[in-house]
Inverse folding.
């Protein structure tokens, strides 16, 4: 009997085998699904979605954005900078609210002084403080927000949100048992012109023992988004746990980045005074920041809820803590992951970096022994890793340049981010991923997926070591992907070449990368804007490099060209969609710089513009360029300004009178009074010629002495010394100048005033134009004096 004859129709037959190609794709597709899920979940929960605002009838002990926003509506009805009647209205209202809450507010009127080079300034401020007394205090929690606004905007988020959070926090705290520690709420004044209120408070002697005080400062650098804890002082290992009950967006990397930037807040002053604590802000939609668009219409109640819940929870934690013990703590590495706060001692940073070196060394050695990779090939691929990183930089830089060609008004955004940057940011990320895909596909012609994975892991390890040594708070971003990548390489090397899991395991670095690098890229897009998109795009490239390695090189040339082109077109189309919907209208006005300046020595008025494009300003400034720093030293950037003629109309004019002069051996003391005549000025700016025979050795205002010499680093030209008085009183300001040298001293005095004098403008500013965050919407009158 033959075999064919032995098989009857009733005999069960085995199903056909699954095609090998399908089986080989499943682990890779599973890896993609896991990574995508982790990346989306971590990004959305950590950096995108704030809380829904609680209603006005929420439980009394909880923070309610609805209740808090009623305070914002009282504060942010109009601009309220220091020295104005609207500022005094907010001050009086705030005193009334604190009294209604059962506290005894105190107003401290004093002069704040900034001696920082390049920022010599003084202003009379009125700080307000009120204290909730503790039952058995070990120290004090100092919760701070400033109640003044910029000159051209109502400051709904910056910092009416902060003030409202403090008031609602006081109300919620008083609904429960008294705290252990004292909690002082400081409503600082004059933050906008130069942290004047914080400086006055720090110099007043009421700060007390710095080891018994912790500061929570509330700020804003945008009008939406999650609350971000972006800066700490020393001993943060004992501070960060206070965020555990309501976790904001936070990362020890943020402080490393922030300390490299020139930005300052009230917290900067307190940290320099020896205090520690935490600094909070919302940073979404930075296009509205420090403009008239920071108004009630753009005030996000969800962001207010997130900030308030975060600060209330942290205040309660610290109010129950042993505050002197904080000074015994060390710094920590910390980061938020979804709703979790993860942290570990800073002392582990270097050992973990060393462990990552040992891990990749052992993994590569093992993989070479198993003949899974070739050492020379890993080295060759590693040498090419900078290529996709440089491609990411090129995509970011080129993308911004092209965007400003299509949308010239983008150049007016002082922080480099338009109103709706999301589609453009996503499109640039797609184009970066395409560049990484091309790099990996070209390498896969000669090198295996495990070799690509090993090379990228080597770079992650090198970055872990470098950051551990230079910026320890950033090392966690690289050390955990590096350790995962090393483990994945070792596991992949153990598997037979036929295993479908071999190549996906070599990309294991992308799993922690999805949780750590993707949210950081999203945070960087918010913090740095599209103008610096190359920074988050480098992070995107570091994440994408190990991800694409298992999939690259599998397409035939024609399919590779087609699918790569399609992906590039998708990225470009998404960017184009973002540009198309981000036009100019009354809700999203163009930002422009336009100033009315008067050379008082020649009685000549001009319009000048430093940046920003809109047809409306073309009637005031043309293509003529003007170097303004000679007559107006305050306007030091850019070097040249677009200019045009302006009618000469009455404006606050600077006046300097010598009250007395006493000469000594090679020096003299001259007392002068500076003032603005004709109308009030928002600031008086005094500059001294540092290229003449005499120079300012010191300036004394009241009992405060400020340094002379050359205090404007990087400034070219004559006016190398400067001093500003913000919100000068009607009677002017008396100054004592100590002058080195017997010859004449040339001084230039500027009077700055908000807005333009009547009759200067031909047409009122249209609704689709607003003043930019810097150097816009004010008048400068300049005169030179000799003493």
């Amino acid at each position: 009997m033959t075999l064919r004859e032995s098989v009857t129709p009733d005999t069960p037959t085995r199903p056909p085998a699954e095609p090998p190609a399908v089986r080989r794709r499943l682990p890779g597709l599973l890896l993609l699904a896991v990574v995508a899920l982790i990346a989306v979940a971590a990004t959305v929960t950590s950096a995108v979605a704030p809380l829904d605002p609680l209603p006005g009838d929420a439980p009394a002990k909880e923070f309610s954005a609805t209740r808090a926003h009623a305070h914002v509506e009282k504060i942010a009805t109009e601009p309220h900078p220091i020295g104005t009647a609207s500022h005094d209205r907010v001050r009086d209202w705030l005193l009334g609210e604190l009294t209604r809450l059962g506290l005894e507010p105190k107003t401290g009127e004093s002069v704040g002084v900034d001696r920082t080079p390049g920022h010599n300034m003084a202003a009379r401020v009125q700080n307000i403080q009120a204290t909730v007394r503790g039952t058995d205090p070990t120290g004090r929690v100092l919760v701070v927000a400033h109640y003044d606004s910029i000159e051209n905007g109502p400051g709904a988020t910056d910092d009416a949100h902060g003030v409202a959070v403090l008031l609602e926090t006081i109300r919620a705290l008083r609904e429960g048992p008294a705290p252990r520690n004292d909690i002082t709420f400081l409503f600082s004044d004059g933050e906008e012109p130069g942290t004047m209120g914080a400086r006055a408070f720090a110099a007043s002697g009421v700060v007390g023992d710095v080891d018994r005080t912790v500061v929570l400062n509330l700020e804003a650098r945008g009008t939406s988004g999650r609350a971000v804890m972006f800066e700490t002082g020393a001993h943060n290992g004992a501070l960060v746990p206070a965020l555990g009950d309501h976790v904001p967006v936070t990362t020890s990397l943020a402080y490393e980045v922030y300390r490299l930037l020139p930005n300052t807040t009230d917290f900067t002053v307190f940290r320099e005074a020896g205090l520690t604590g935490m600094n909070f802000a919302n940073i979404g939609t930075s296009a509205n920041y420090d403009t008239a668009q920071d108004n009630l219409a753009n005030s996000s109640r969800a962001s207010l809820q997130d900030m308030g819940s975060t600060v209330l929870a942290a205040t309660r934690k610290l109010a129950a803590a042993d505050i002197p013990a904080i000074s015994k703590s060390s710094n920590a590495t910390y980061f938020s992951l979804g709703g979790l706060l993860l942290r570990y001692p800073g002392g582990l940073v270097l050992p973990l970096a060393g462990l990552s070196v040992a891990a990749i060394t052992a993994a590569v050695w093992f993989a070479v022994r198993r003949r899974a990779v070739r050492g020379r090939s890993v080295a060759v691929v590693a040498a090419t890793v900078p290529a996709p990183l440089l491609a990411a930089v090129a995509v970011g830089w080129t993308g911004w340049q092209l965007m400003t060609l299509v949308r010239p008004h983008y150049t007016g955004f002082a922080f480099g981010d338009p109103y709706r940057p999301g589609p453009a940011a996503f499109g640039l990320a797609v184009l970066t991923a395409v560049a990484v895909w091309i790099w990996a596909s070209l390498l896969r012609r000669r090198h295996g997926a495990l070799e690509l994975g090993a090379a990228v892991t080597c770079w992650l390890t090198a970055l872990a070591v470098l950051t551990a040594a230079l910026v320890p708070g950033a090392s966690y971003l690289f050390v955990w992907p590096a350790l995962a990548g090393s483990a994945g390489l070792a596991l992949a090397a153990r598997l037979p070449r036929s295993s479908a899991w071999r190549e996906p395991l070599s990309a294991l670095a992308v799993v922690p990368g999805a949780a750590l690098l993707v949210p950081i890229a999203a945070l960087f897009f918010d913090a740095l804007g599209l103008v610096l998109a190359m920074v988050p795009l480098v992070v995107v490239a570091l994440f994408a490099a190990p991800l694409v390695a298992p999939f690259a090189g599998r397409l035939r040339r024609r399919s590779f060209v087609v699918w790569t082109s399609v992906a590039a077109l998708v990225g470009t189309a998404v960017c184009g969609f973002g540009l198309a919907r981000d036009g100019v209208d009354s809700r999203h006005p163009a930002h422009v710089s336009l100033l009315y300046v008067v050379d008082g020595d020649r009685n000549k008025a001009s319009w000048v513009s430093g940046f920003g494009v809109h047809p409306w300003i073309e009637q005031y400034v043309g293509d003529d360029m003007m170097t303004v720093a000679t007559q107006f030293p305050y306007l030091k950037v850019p070097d040249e300004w677009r200019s045009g003629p302006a009618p000469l109309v009455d404006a606050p004019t600077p006046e300097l009178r010598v009250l007395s002069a006493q000469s000594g051996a090679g020096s003299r003391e001259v007392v002068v009074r500076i003032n603005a005549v004709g109308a009030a000025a928002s600031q008086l700016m005094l500059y001294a010629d540092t290229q003449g025979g005499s120079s300012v050795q010191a300036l004394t205002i009241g009992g405060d002495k400020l340094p002379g010499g050359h205090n404007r680093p990087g400034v070219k030209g004559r006016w190398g010394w400067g001093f500003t008085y913000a919100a000068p009183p009607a009677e002017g300001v008396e100054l004592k100048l100590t002058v080195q040298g017997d010859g004449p001293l040339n001084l230039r005095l500027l009077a700055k005033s908000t807005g333009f004098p009547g009759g200067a403008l031909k047409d009122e500013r249209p609704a689709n134009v607003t003043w930019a965050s810097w150097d816009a919407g004010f008048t400068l009158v300049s005169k030179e004096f000799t003493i």
